[in-house]
Write a structure and sequence with these properties.
The chain is mainly alpha-helical. Helices cover 96% and strands 0% of the residues. The protein has one domain.
Length: 104
């Protein structure tokens, strides 16, 4: 009978130990589930951040092309003025030559 009582006591102790270990495992599982939810939230935040950065990149490209167009305007105006000046000088020289020859 004492042998049986000792065995029951050992089994009870083992059961308590297993219950404590099971409780720790359940707590760990709950912690892992919370971490999983947090990671999923962060993944969503990262996806949104990537979309925002992509939008910023597109807007930056648009701004760069607008700046390029603005920067080219003075150059185009200068080319136009220079072309007109060259045309006027050429016309004046041709006119002078024709007047000197007496054709005009």
């Amino acid at each position: 009978m004492e042998d049986l009582t000792a065995k029951v006591a050992v089994h009870e102790q083992q059961i308590k130990s297993l219950e404590a270990r099971t409780k720790k495992l359940e707590d760990m599982r709950e912690g892992i589930a919370e971490i999983k939810v947090a990671i999923e939230r962060q993944t969503g935040n990262i996806d949104r951040l990537a979309e925002i950065v992509g939008g910023i990149g597109k807007r930056q490209e648009e701004h760069e092309s607008r700046i390029d167009a603005i920067e080219q305007k003075p150059g185009k105006k200068w080319e136009s003025v220079a072309g007109q000046v060259i045309s006027l000088v050429t016309a004046a020289i041709v006119g002078m030559i024709l007047a000197h020859i007496g054709l005009v």
